[in-house]
Design brief:
The structure is a single chain. The chain is mainly beta. It has a domain of 211 residues. Helices cover 13% and strands 34% of the residues. The chain contains four helices and 22 strands. Strands 1, 2, 3, 4, 5, 6, 12, 14, 17, 18, 19 and 20 form a twelve-stranded mixed beta sheet that branches. An eight-stranded antiparallel beta sheet has the order 7-8-9-10-22-16-15-13. It has a two-stranded antiparallel sheet with strand order 11-21. A hairpin with a 3-residue loop joins strand 8 and strand 9. Helix 1 packs across helix 3. The radius of gyration is 22 Å and the shape is globular.
Length: 376
């Protein structure tokens, strides 16, 4: 946990811009549409839900400096009939216990509406599960908060996952994820890896191509609040557990969450951002495998699984600068309160600052590190 917040703190110290986005003076929450189409906007961002022949089409848009709304992200529904060689992570036919939130969206309604906030509820079901999703938009915010709740018929789960495409025309110029996937002998093929919550050091997937910007940030509070105990999750390792592994009581293991950033899915030319509840195989050097077979199905101690995430959007962000807002958000939401309590620290935070300052801002003992030429 300490490493997580040190990473957030470092990102935040680099970021000089505050997160807040100034809304237009005439900004107000508005809801429009009919039984076939619904649109919610606040003068900064908008979400549009449209009925078609299959699941709902849901697109997330942002207003540019000219006052026009532009698609930034949309729910991803892969077509394996058209692209049979696509990444099998997204193929829900692999096991009966895979649930893609984007494929289980059939109906919508306004759940709550006020001058300050609108919440739309999206529902759907299969033979094996029912799903409810809420998309919340508040006045003056440049992000949606998405929550997903799946109620299963059986206490078995491969994954519940939300996937969105980033509507860039080219490969993003700026990419951040908590770790990078890489093919190697121990960790296996890169396309079979995800970003497990062991590696949520700066928990966000951030993409920017020119002025187009999006970031998916796991809601860390929901991970603990809605944790689901599983007797066989978090148990698979490549190689042996190291002597530094922390022992956990057998009845305390919970289903993990995982992020995924897939730039080359074989299913779309756009980057795919994903987040959800799923187990993984811990591999060397913070890499996490997922097999596309029944070996990833886990038993659960209850039938309901929940997770959520803020989705940040901008169509006219200064080049390579959008990450600053996410760093500020993470530090304000998680890092700063955590450090202020100091319960996890071996000494007061001020003592850490003085210690670090004494090491990096003063010459070290020449026996430890030779002096750098020109340093005084």
């Amino acid at each position: 946990m300490t490493r997580l917040f040190l990473n957030i703190m470092i990102m935040s110290m680099i970021a000089h811009e505050a997160y807040a986005v100034t809304a237009p003076r005439d900004s107000r929450l508005s809801v429009s549409g009919d039984a076939q189409r619904m649109r919610i906007e606040n003068g900064i961002i908008a979400v549009e839900l449209r009925r078609g022949d299959g699941p709902l089409d849901i697109s997330f848009q942002a207003r540019n400096s000219k006052g026009n709304y532009q698609d930034v992200c949309e729910y991803f529904r892969p077509d394996f009939k058209k692209h049979p060689e696509g990444n099998k992570l997204f193929d829900t036919s692999v096991t009966p216990y895979r649930y893609q939130a984007s494929e289980m969206v059939g109906d919508f309604e306004i759940l709550a509406q006020s001058d300050d906030k609108v919440v739309v509820r999206v529902t759907g079901k299969t033979e094996d599960a029912q799903m409810e999703q809420t998309i919340s938009l508040s006045r003056g915010d440049a992000f949606f908060h998405v929550e997903v709740s799946a109620t299963l018929n059986k206490p078995l789960l491969d994954y519940v996952m939300s996937s969105l495409v980033f509507k860039s025309k080219e490969r993003p110029e700026f990419i951040h994820s908590p770790t990078a996937k890489k093919t190697d002998k121990r960790a296996g093929p890169a396309q079979d890896q995800v970003i497990g919550d062991h590696a949520f050091h700066s928990p966000a997937v951030i993409l920017q191509e020119g002025p187009l910007f999006a970031a998916l940030v796991p809601d860390l509070d929901m991970i603990n609040k809605y944790r689901v105990v599983s007797p066989d999750a978090r148990r698979m390792f490549v190689g042996r557990r190291s002597k530094f592994s922390v022992p956990i009581e057998a009845d305390k293991y919970t289903m993990p969450t995982a992020l995924d950033l897939n730039l080359v899915s074989g299913l779309t030319t756009h980057p795919v951002l994903s987040y959800g509840t799923m187990d993984f195989v811990v591999s060397p050097h913070i890499r996490y495998q997922r097999s596309n077979d029944a070996s990833m199905v886990r038993k659960l101690h209850k039938l309901r699984v929940r997770y959520g995430f803020p989705l940040f959007l901008r169509p006219d962000e200064p080049a390579n600068a959008g990450y600053r807002k996410i760093a500020r958000y993470l530090w304000k939401r998680y890092g700063h309160p955590f450090f202020m309590h100091e319960r996890h620290l071996a000494m007061p935070f001020e003592a850490y600052v003085k210690t670090v300052y004494g090491v990096v801002s003063k010459p070290m003992d020449p026996k430890v590190q030779a002096p750098v030429p020109g340093y005084y």
